[in-house]
């Protein structure tokens, strides 16, 4: 970055003209924005911003009445903010304009203000008046409490003070190269310490000492903590909703999470992988034959389900006896009424309440988890045709016919 | 920091005939449409992305472009400026079924409209038909859950119709939010256009300030309680020094930009067809070049100087001189900001 200080607006207008002419002559010509124009004096209205300008800082001046800012200056500010978003008001170290006037303009236009160092910063003496001027600006800025613009180098120093309150002392006040060039590079340590101590006096008077910064850091940390807690709770709530809407056995997963201490996503993964593992084993040993419908269950696996179902039916003394037993199981486990349990219309059964105690979950979760587990077993019996339905299937869709667009008019 | 506001005239075509419209009759009849490319050129600039921004879709009548095109504008704008608030100004003359849907999706369930008790008519010149259609359209929006405040242009005809006719009309609709705007006679301006330095148009009024503020005071005194009981809120009666002036176009020259369908850009939407105010066109210039147009900076300065005429007024801090497209004083003893109304507001807050 190249720094050009103290040019006049008329000179910047000429620079632009020259650059525009160069482009006219050579269409391929391009200018990189790598020049910082600082303390530009508005002798005329700044009509065009040079094409190589990375930033432009205008020095304030007064009009002929001596009470208001010069129109050339205000006009130029208004004009360049449309072209460049790096535009500042640069207050020279020897500026005698009322700081309130300058800060009021900065607030109106939301432009940052830089109170620039004098040329000689080799020792305390030449920066004494500068430090007083900066103190005056800083006092006003801190009292305004406006959030629309910043004041340099006070802003960088405040950051430094906050960092120190956090227990970290940065080796540099700022890492911004433009700020370094304007406020820290080539400034003697003695002069720098003097300016810092003057700023400390203002800060101490307007805000307080180190305690103030620690309090503010605590406040910010508390706010971040609160926000994090809110975000975590919101995320948990979303996760619960996702669990209900995207998995077939959400309560079984909740119960597994409680039993194992796993996080919900891990418990969901574990249940899914168990299910997937069973299917993998079944597919390995009881695969589909060539030509079998790949969308339907494997016939061999259906035969196994049918065999299991038949075994239960025989063991219980026939289909009627089996139906009665399955009916009782479905009733006790609240399989058929699980929708009502979920809505809170039906309370969890006694066994669910007891299981809840042991599982460490809500009774409703235990009731639904039991129902989900029973449903899984029931689906094997259903596949083997030992039972006709589980009782929790979605009702068949009602077919609708398209409405006629003909309107009867009489 | 006040919002930066983009007024985007997607067309200047209109389905209503307003005698004193700020758009020319010729442009209101043309079926021009804003191109997406022009819209993109307008929105892709730090003037919007670096600030809190409101995008207001306008016309003519914006809805005449149809649902498909309007939706494309809204979607593209949301892609470019996802945090910008969008809304629309419609004349409510023929509210399409899709508008409430679009308002729900893009406009935060809020659009705006304008109204006056005269010099607004259907394209066939029928004022009664206009008023009927307007009320239907307005009710349709409120019944669909879309908040649509009405900005009443306090023109000569509205003032002459009287407080009762206006209050009765307000009570006859479902609308619960009404505002008031000063009326400018663009028809007369167009016959003899006059500009001050920087392309500041010198706009004539249709009614004096003293008549405007007297009318509003009378409306509040005679019918205010009844309107309030009906749940109707009126911005002018609720002006609060703490929240500033809620009139249209108060100290806005720096943060308003208006885009015409042909790419021409100006500041205030009322200047859409006032050539002397135009900053240039996106057809052959960039946004940066248009924003750097010296006339824009001159108009901001002129706006500040205008407010300087109020120095010494106790209301200056929050009133800021009222709408800046009209003169501060008109010789009637009142001012654009409505000192009488501010006095009443202060009395209320002290009571």
Short description:
Chain A is an alpha/beta fold and 410 residues long. In chain A, 58% of the residues lie in helices and 7% in strands. Chain A has a six-stranded parallel beta sheet.
Task: Give your account of this protein's structure.
The complex is a heterodimer of chains A (410) and B (351). Chain A has 410 residues and is an alpha/beta fold. Chain A folds into 2 domains: 2-218, no CATH class; 248-383, no CATH class. Chain A is 58% helix and 7% strand. Chain A has 15 helices and 6 strands. Chain A has helices spanning 9-25, 71-83, 99-109, 124-144, 154-165, 177-184, 189-206, 210-246, 250-260, 264-285, 299-315, 319-332, 338-343, 350-359, 363-383, and strands at residues 2-5, 35-41, 53-59, 87-91, 112-115, 151-152. Chain A has a 6-stranded parallel beta sheet. In chain A, helix 4 (124-144) runs parallel beside helix 7 (189-206) and helix 9 (250-260) crosses helix 15 (363-383). Chain A is elongated and about 110 Å long. Chain B has 14 helices and 14 strands. In chain B, helix 2 runs parallel beside helix 4 (67-80) and helix 4 runs parallel beside helix 5 (98-106). In chain B, the strands form 4 sheets. Chain B has a 6-stranded mixed beta sheet. A 4-stranded parallel beta sheet of chain B has the order 5-7-8-11. A two-stranded antiparallel sheet of chain B has the order 2-6. Chain B has 351 residues and is an alpha/beta fold. Chain B has one domain (4-350): TIM Barrel, CATH 3.20.20. Chain B is 39% helix and 15% strand.
Name the helix and strand elements of chain B from N-terminus to C-terminus, one letter apiece.
EEHHHEHEHEEHEHHEHEEHEEEEHHHH
Over all CA atoms, what is the radius of gyration of chain A? 39 Å
Query: What do we call the CATH homologous superfamily of chain B?
Result: Aldolase class I
**Backbone structural class of chain A:** alpha/beta
Please tally the helical runs of chain A, counting DSSP H or I stretches of 4 or more residues: 15
Task: Describe the sheet with the most strands of chain A.
Answer: 6 strands, parallel
Task: Domain count of chain A, please report it.
Answer: 2
Helical proportion of chain A? Answer: 55-70%
Domain tally of chain B: 1
Model regions low in confidence, pLDDT < 50 over at least 5 residues of chain A: none
Radius of gyration of chain B: 19 Å
* Count of individual beta strands of chain B: 14
Q: Helicity range of the residues of chain B?
A: 25-40%
Going by helix content, strand content and strand pairing, the class of chain B is alpha/beta
Termini gap of chain B = 30 Å
The most extensive contact between chains is:
A-B, 17 and 15 residues
Query: Please, what is the average pLDDT of chain A?
Result: 89
CATH topology type of chain B: TIM Barrel
- Oligomeric composition of the shown chains: heterodimer
With strands numbered from the N-terminus, the spatial order across the biggest sheet of chain B is 4-3-1-12-13-14
């Amino acid at each position: 970055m190249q720094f050009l200080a103290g040019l006049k607006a008329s000179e910047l207008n000429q620079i632009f003209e020259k650059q525009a002419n160069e482009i006219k002559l050579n269409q391929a010509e391009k200018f990189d924005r790598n020049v910082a124009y600082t303390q530009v004096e508005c002798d005329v209205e700044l009509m065009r911003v040079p094409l190589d300008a990375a930033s432009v800082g205008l020095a304030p001046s007064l009009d002929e009445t001596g009470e208001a800012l010069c129109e050339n200056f205000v006009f130029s500010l208004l004009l360049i903010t449309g072209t460049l978003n790096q535009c500042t008001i640069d207050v020279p170290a020897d500026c005698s304009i009322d700081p309130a006037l300058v800060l009021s303009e900065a607030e109106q236009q939301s432009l940052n203000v830089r109170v620039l160092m004098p040329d000689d910063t080799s020792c305390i003496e030449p920066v004494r008046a500068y430090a007083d001027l900066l103190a005056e600006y800083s006092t006003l800025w801190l009292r305004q409490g406006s959030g629309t613009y910043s004041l340099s180098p006070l802003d960088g120093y405040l950051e430094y003070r906050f960092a120190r309150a956090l227990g970290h002392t940065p080796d540099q006040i700022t890492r911004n190269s433009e700020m370094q060039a304007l406020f820290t590079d080539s400034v003697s340590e003695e002069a720098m310490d003097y300016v810092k101590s003057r700023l400390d006096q203002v800060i101490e008077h307007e805000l307080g000492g180190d305690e103030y910064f620690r309090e503010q850091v605590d406040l910010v940390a508390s706010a971040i903590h609160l926000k994090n807690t809110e975000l975590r709770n919101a995320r948990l709530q979303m996760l619960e909703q996702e669990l209900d809407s995207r998995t077939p056995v959400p309560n079984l997963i909740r119960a597994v999470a409680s039993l194992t201490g796993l996080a919900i996503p891990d418990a969901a993964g574990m249940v899914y992988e168990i299910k997937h593992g069973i299917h993998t084993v079944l597919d390995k040993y009881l695969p589909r034959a060539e030509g079998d419908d790949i969308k339907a269950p494997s016939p061999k696996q259906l035969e196994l389900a049918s065999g299991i179902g038949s075994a239960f039916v025989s063991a219980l003394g026939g289909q009627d006896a089996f139906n009665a037993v399955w009916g009782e199981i479905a009733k006790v486990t609240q399989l058929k009424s699980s929708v009502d349990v979920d809505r809170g219309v039906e309370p969890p059964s006694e066994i669910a309440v007891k299981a809840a105690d042991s599982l460490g979950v809500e009774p409703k979760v235990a009731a639904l988890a039991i129902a989900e587990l029973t449903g899984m077993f029931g689906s094997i019996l259903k596949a083997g045709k030992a039972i006709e339905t589980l009782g929790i299937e979605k009702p068949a869709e009602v077919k609708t016919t398209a409405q006629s667009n003909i309107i009867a008019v009489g | 920091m006040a919002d930066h506001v983009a007024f985007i005239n997607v067309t200047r075509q209109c389905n209503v005939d307003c005698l004193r419209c700020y758009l020319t009759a010729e442009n209101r009849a043309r079926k021009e449409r804003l191109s997406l490319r022009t819209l993109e050129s307008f929105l892709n600039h730090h003037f919007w992305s670096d600030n809190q921004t409101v995008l207001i879709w306008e016309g003519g009548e914006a809805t005449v472009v149809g649902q498909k095109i309007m939706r494309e504008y809204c979607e593209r704008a949301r892609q470019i400026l996802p945090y910008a608030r969008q809304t629309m100004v419609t004349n409510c003359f023929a509210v399409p079924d899709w508008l409430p849907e679009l308002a729900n999706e893009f406009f935060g369930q809020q659009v705006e409209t304008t109204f006056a008790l005269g010099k607004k008519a259907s394209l066939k010149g029928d004022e009664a038909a206009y008023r009927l259609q307007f009320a239907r359209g307005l009710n349709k929006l409120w019944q669909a859950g879309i908040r649509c405040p009405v900005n009443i242009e306090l023109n000569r005809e509205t003032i002459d119709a009287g407080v009762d006719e206006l209050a009765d009309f307000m009570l006859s609709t479902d609308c619960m939010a009404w505002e008031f705007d000063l009326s400018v006679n663009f028809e007369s301006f167009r016959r003899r256009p006059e500009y001050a330095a920087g392309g500041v148009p010198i706009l004539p009024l249709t009614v004096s300030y003293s008549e405007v503020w007297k009318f509003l005071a009378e409306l509040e005194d005679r019918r205010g309680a009844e309107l309030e009981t009906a749940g109707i809120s009126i911005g002018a009666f609720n002006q609060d020094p703490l929240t500033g002036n809620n009139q249209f176009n108060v100290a806005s020259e720096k943060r308003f930009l208006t885009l015409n369908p042909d790419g021409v850009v100006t500041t205030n939407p009322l200047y859409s067809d006032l050539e002397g105010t135009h900053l240039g066109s996106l057809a052959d210039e960039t946004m940066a070049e248009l924003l750097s147009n010296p006339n824009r900076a001159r108009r901001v300065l002129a706006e500040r100087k205008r407010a300087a005429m109020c120095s010494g007024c106790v209301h200056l801090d929050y009133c800021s001189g009222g709408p800046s497209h009209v003169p501060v004083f008109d010789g009637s003893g009142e001012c654009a900001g409505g000192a009488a109304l501010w006095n009443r507001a202060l009395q209320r807050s002290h009571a």
